[in-house]
Amino acid sequence: MDNNYNTIIIGAGPAGMEAAYRLSVFGIRTCLLEKEAETGGHLLKWDRIFPEGRKASEILGFMRKRIESGNITTITSARIDSIRKKAGNGYEAELATNEGKKTITADTILIACGFKLFNAAKKEEYGYGIYNRVITNADLENLFKTNSTGSIIGENRTPAVGFVHCVGSRDEKAGNRHCSKVCCATAVKQAMEIKEAYPQATVYCFYMDLRMFGRHYEDMYLEAQQKYGIRFIRGRVSEVSEDCNERIVAKAEDTLSGKPVKITLDMLVLMSGIACNPDSGKITGSLSIENDSDGFIKYADSIFGQVKGPGIFTAGTCTGPKTLPETINEAGEAAAVIYGYLKGNSNNF
Ligand SMILES: Cc1cc2nc3c(=O)[nH]c(=O)nc-3n(C[C@H](O)[C@H](O)[C@H](O)COP(=O)(O)OP(=O)(O)OC[C@H]3O[C@@H](n4cnc5c(N)ncnc54)[C@H](O)[C@@H]3O)c2cc1C
Ligand code: SF4
Could you say which architecture CATH assigns to the domain 4-114+277-342? Predict the structure, then answer.
């Protein structure tokens, strides 16, 4: 009896946690599965969240508190060995957990397995994994969290720092044609944080287009220019090398002035994008639902969302790049749709 649920949620990142909480409010018995040792997904890795700069740890603490309800069983370090449709209705999953093997069943499945950060080492021209001063946006979040940007920048109080947008996104060669949506805003946020930490720093953002689409994002961009003096250079970095002082030399073409630029930097930050989580392919394969050409799970309908499978639902970035508020909104909506489905309303796409 204990192993029978109304809903199994795969992934306890922001989407899975929010959906679990919403379902618990509706009185739905939920099993929240997380493959890592802790809940939180990528929120665990971020220091501050744009646009307001709220602490990710506070948001996560709030979300964790909300899932401490009797209706939610959370299993961390859970590996799904198999998941399949049962004869008749419902689903069955075989798990490997810290307490041993376990079989659980449920009426519905919510896939919330999130995304994978693009591996910047695949873009060899930027020198990630080769030069110590080349890091990713995720690495910089960790340096902010641990107050240790000095481990890369050193003692220089007037450093030059560069940000490269669209790393592994909007890039046919990298296999990702899509825009990752969150990395322009992340770059602008991180550029301002560098200026907060090093007021004398010179900070450059190398961009193709700036996609500051969200509410108050344009304000961030204006603040970055007017208050912090961040220099926005429209152009792709074409070559990165190291000089004899182990500083980074970045070459680009400023496409607005038509002139080549060569800048020596104390730190170069690559804005790695949101790529599909390869686990989602395994899960959708077992449940006979489709992935899109870019690997993200395919929506059944581009307006109403959700997937084509009776009793199978999705939330968050497993279907494509999303900001945190978008993820949380979609998770709340998925919970409402699941509640309707369990009550016999399956009038969904
Ligand atoms: C560099 C960067 C900075 C960002 N900063 C911001 C910001 O400041 N503001 C903002 O609004 N948004 C930001 N975002 C976006 C934000 O991180 C996402 O919207 C959010 O993390 C999506 O949550 P999710 O639950 O869909 O996925 P994830 O956070 O990826 O969580 C998915 C969870 O599922 C688990 N999982 C995966 N596969 C399985 C499996 N097979 N079995 C069990 N569990 C599994 C994972 O371990 C993980 O815990 C940023 C994104 C990036 C890349
Ligand atoms: S959000 Fe900006 S940096 Fe990220 S892929 Fe889109 S355009 Fe490039």
Answer: 3-Layer(bba) Sandwich (3.50)
